[in-house]
Every structure is written in structure tokens, then in C-alpha cells.
Design goal:
With about 400 residues, the chain is mostly helical. It has helices at about 20-35, 40-50, 55-80, 80-100, 105-135, 140-170, 170-190, 220-250, 260-275, 275-280, 285-300, 310-335, 340-370, 375-395. The two termini are about 25 Å apart.
Amino acid sequence: MKTSQEAIPPLTSGRVYTAGFWLMCLSSFLFFMSFNMLLPELPDFLTRLGGAEYKGFIIALFTLTAGLSRPFSGKLADTVGRIPVMVFGSLVCFVCGFFYPWVTTVAGFLGLRLLHGFSTGFKPTGTAAFIADIIPFERRGEAMGLLGVAGSLGMAAGPALGPYITAATSLNTLFYCSSGLALLSLAVQGTMTETLPVPQRQRFSWRLLRLDWDEILEPQVLAPALVTLLCLFPFGAILTIVPDQSRALGLSEAEKGLFYTCYTLSSLLVRLVAGRASDTYGRLPVLRLSTTLLVVSLVLLTLVEHSVPLFLGSAVLFGLATGLNSPTLYAWTVDLSHPERRGRAVATMYIALEVGIGLGALLAGWVYGNVDSNLPYVHALSVGATLLALLYLFWGVKKQPPVVA
């Protein structure tokens, strides 16, 4: 791992997107592909272990440890460095993927899901702080959009390839492929240069894991954190029930990932076309539009019944909404954060993200209860969460000036 003697200022070479930026995008692609390729297969895997009633815990436990670890990853990113935090996250993903084939009990599976969550508690926190360090304010929304394209490509390729790998080989092969991709992500990070300024850097010590209250949540970014929580609630619900909803609609085992593929490809399209939208028109106007689209897509999901085209059409609209929403929330969070507390600010947003996804997954599993006729009620719950976000964006947000650095 290389380290510089000084912090690298943005645009030292006159280019906005340097080799370091594109390497980070590649690392994110591999990382997100690694654990997302397991998602279509995990509900059936848990059922075969005898834990069908615990499907909601597949996502909820993963996000629980991810959320709990965010304050630590945020503080470490601001003290030890961005790259060590990312390396730890990828390393956890590599180890967990390798051990799934050895799980034989429901308790063992749920324990491994808890451990696996540390990967997303660390890697994306360091990534977002690293990108914010090397991209200037006026291109921040565009850069977060491009980073999101890389992650979304991984999220699309993973669930699409996972069922095919399993059908062509075995479930154990899928787990080992997931582990291998995490290892590749780790290798890419080893080529990058640390961006945390030298005066801020410290050697790791256990005392850094002691947190004061202001190191857990960054007050300056509570507004984007609240919107993130409410808008990510539907994602947790969808991750939990879409494999079962796909089956109920008559899609084959190999087609269980179609919803994820349609959602992610449409998200990619809008990120490429409208990556600079929030840089041009402002964060709040774009968030109001994207959240409105999110509400509409979820309303359509409640009306799916037996229509596969409407199901996949809802996925496309959901992807368009999140493609606008996600990079804007990232950029808004970084706008409001002080450079010396950037890791903590990003961690606060991610805590909200994990809480939203975890609550969505838990409540979805409870409301669904393995009864297909309950599926519309799960989506109706998500409609309620996103409507609250929309109301807050129109009438609850107080205007705050960005911290330009």
C-alpha cells in the first residue's frame, strides 16, 4: 500500500478524474458484485437449513453490524486513513464468502451474516471520504454519480450472475466466486495513494475505538441522514421479498435476479445521463423529483398481482428514482461536512442507510410471513416511508450553506 508524504489536493494534475478515481470505481464494482451475487440464493439456502421464518434477518443482521460499525469506520477514516478502512471492509467480505459453504445450522448462518455486515460498514465509508478528498465541490454530484455507476454495475451483475453460476455449477462455487471478487477488490486498493492529510494521521490503537457522542453522529448532516433512512427503507423490503415475489409470479430459478437487473440498469442509465443534475439544479430540487418517482414506483409494486411486465416496469422506475436519489444524498452529505470530520459525516449517512434497510427488511419479513397475498402490504409500508421523506424535503428541511473545501 502506498502512502504520500502530504495530502493530495484536488486537481493537482489539472484533471478531475485521475487514475485513483477510476481505480476506486473498479474496486467498488468488484466489492458490490461480491456480496450482491449471493442475494437471490440466500433465502432458499436459509430455507434448506430450516430457517424459512428468518428470511427477514438475512438483510437485517447484515445491516445491523454495518450500521453499528459506521461510527468506528468514520473515526478511523479521519484518523488512521481512508485506505486502511477500505482494506478491512474488503478483507471481511473475502473471509465471509469463503466460509458460507461450511455453515450447516441456522444459528451459524445468522452469525455469519452478522460478521459479513462489517464489510459494508467499512469499505463504502472509506470510499466516499476518499472520493470527496480528490474531487472539487462543483463536480461532487457528478463524481458520486459515476462512483454509483460502478457500484450499481456490481449490484446488477452480481444478482444476475449468481443464479446462473449456481445452476451451472453449485452453490458452494457461488460462495467461493463471491470471496474471490472481494479479494480482487482488496488487491486494487493496494495500488492507491492515501489522501488523508499527514497531520491528521495516527497509528491505529485500541483507544481510537472509544467514541464520544459527537463521534457517533455528525450533527451537520442529520437532514440528509433522515432522508436516507426513509428512502432506503423500501430497498431493505425489496431485497427481502423480491426473490419470493419473483417465484410467485412464475419466474424460473435462473430469472430470480431479473428485478435487480432491471432496477440496476435503469439506475445506471440515469446516473450516466443525469450525473451532474444536482450540481446544476441543486440538491433539494433533484431529491424532491427522485423521491416522487420512488413513491410512484412503489405504488405500482402494490398493484402488480400477476403481471410480470408491471413488476419489471416498477423495477425500472425504482431504478430511475434511486439513480437520481443516491448520488445526490452522498453529495449533499459531503457538502455539509467539514473536511476534518468528513469520514464521520459519511458514516452518519451510512448509519441512516443501514437503519433504513434493516428496518425495511425486518418489517417486510414480518408482514410478508411467507404468505404471497401479503406482498402488496409490504410495498404499501414502503410507500408510507417515502411519502414521509417527500413531505420532509418540501416542508421540513432548513437551508444550510455547503462547506466548500
